[in-house]
Structure formats: structure tokens, C-alpha cells
Amino acid sequence: MTEWEKYQQIRREAAFTGLALLVLILFWCWAGFGLSDVQVELFGLPLWAVTSSIGVWLFAIVLVRVLLKFVFRDMSLEQEKEAGSHE
């Protein structure tokens, strides 16, 4: 993998990580504020409290798994020696 390809992969990973963060924030807003009018209780707590804490945590784990499976690639960050160079 060339240095340029590594750079592009790192940029891709950073962009998708930022996008995942935005999706997580939007989910948190929906799970907390969007469900605040719902009169359902779970474990003695309002639904919005459970979804905005435990639900967001579980959703974050799912997002990380998706990033690991489809976006991130295992690559060496060491500089590769060019063919024919003597160091």
C-alpha cells in the first residue's frame, strides 16, 4: 500500500468516524428528548432515561462494529523502504 493510499484510508476512516459520531448524537437526541412524552417505564425508569443512556451505549457498540467490519482496514503505518534504496 502506497503512502497516498494509506493517507486516503486514514481520511476515510476519520470521515466515517465523524459521521458515526453525528449519527450517535442524533440518536441520543431522539432517544432522550424525542421519547420524553412517552409514558412508558422500564426497570422503574422512564423510557427516555433508559434509551438515552443504555440504548445509546448499545447503539454506539453497534456503530463501532459496523465501522470495524466495513470501513477500517488493518495496515502498517511504518514507512516502506523503496526498492533500490540503501540505508
TrEMBL record:
Keywords: Membrane, Transmembrane, Transmembrane helix
Pfam families from the UniProt entry: DUF997
Superkingdom of source: Bacteria
InterPro entries in alphabetical order: DUF997
TM helices/strands, residue ranges: 14-33, 45-68
Name of the protein in question: Uncharacterized membrane protein YhdT
